[in-house]
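HUMAN: Spend a minute on the protein record below and explain its fold to me.
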Amino acid sequence: MTTTDSPRVEKRRPVPRAGAGRPGRRSGASVARPGLAWAAPATLFFTLFAVVPLIMVAVLSFAEWDGVDALSFTGVDNWKTLFHDHVMLQSIWLTLLTTVLGVVVQTPLSILLGVWAAGKQRNRAVLSAIYFIPLLLSATAISILWRALLDPNFGVPSQARWLFGDGNLFGHQSTAIGVLIFVGAWQYTPFHTLIYQGATRAIPQVLYQAAAIDGAGRVRQFWSITLPQLRTTMVTSMILMVVGGMTVFDTVLILTQGGPGTDTTTTPYYSYVKGFKDFQFGYASAIALILVVVATIISLVIVKFSGYDKMRSSSEGL
């Protein structure tokens, strides 16, 4: 009697539905999110060194205090004086002017140098390391250095009258502002270059490979791939430039001291003059608060009109 084997019935594993699971994760496993305790140290630090001083400045702006005698509240007298102060209004315009010029000069330089430094050649790495040296120096040291180099009597301008005219770059408003823009760019462009270098290296190489197959050259790839991919980095860099440009103080103090006259008196420097030279700390606090409000508004406008607030990341955080 012969028997025939019954056919085997294989059990197929259920095919997961699209989106039901994620590679590298167990199905049904929950992602642990950090609690509020993770943010506690940063929140405490920000509160103590940013929020509390800002509140104290806001309160002091409604008072009169010379730093020695008792504080006396004067209501809105400081604010009334503020909007009728010619030097104050001029300082706001100068601060905005130097900030805009700084952004216009530093942004294209930072992008071009950052994209160039993103290459893998050894000479680029060496030159980039040398170029980033100003990041290691303080603003005070850099300002002293350039003050000596541009001295009208013993510096470079005194030896090149054919280029610098009378050699007194600090004696005219236009040239003094030019010096401030140049020194600021020399110091801070390497920082923004470093940001663009990292962002450029994060661009997927497959985009450039596809563009090369389609016959696009390096210039076309730069305008069609690199710049669009650096959009979020541009917004971040520009906000840092705006905030930094509107709060720069030590460079003005050492290079021009607000001169000639008050032609380079920016708002941060004017606040210092009123507070630590004229001992009007209440009025200086009002000036500082105006500066904070203006810088915040400009940053929010950049974020709004650039579409940065609507951008979403493709990567998940913790």
